[in-house]
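Q: What does the predicted 3D structure of C3H1-type domain-containing protein look like?
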Amino acid sequence: HFESQARRCPVDAVTGQLLYWECPCEGWNETGYCISGSACVFAHGRDEVSYHPAKYKTRLCNRHECRGENSCCFAHNDTELRLWAPERYSFASIAGLYGLPCGPGGCGDRWPYGSSMGSGAPPNLGHK
């Protein structure tokens, strides 16, 4: 892989805690740089969004831009589909559990750091 293709692991292997949301980091999207670096609670780039548990294999592959079944972030059959994943791992779903606003874009109205969600980091939900 090229350095530009590097992505963070979205789930802590020990605790099962999500390390960042599937929502794109505004700073990263605008400048390609984030002052929070690897501690940022939002996705840096398309691959971090696509391979996040909230998105990974939740839609069928269109086969036009497929990277191959072993590395494609889309499902190649109904058995691979993870239709339950957005409800369990997405920012919008979790924000709803806490009664927090989520804008029309899904992640536009993010809760402030220091609110009832503490650092703004995703909660420990366990993982599959």
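A (community wiki): The structure tokens above were generated from the sequence. Confidence is low (pLDDT under 50) at residues 108-119. The radius of gyration is 15 Å.
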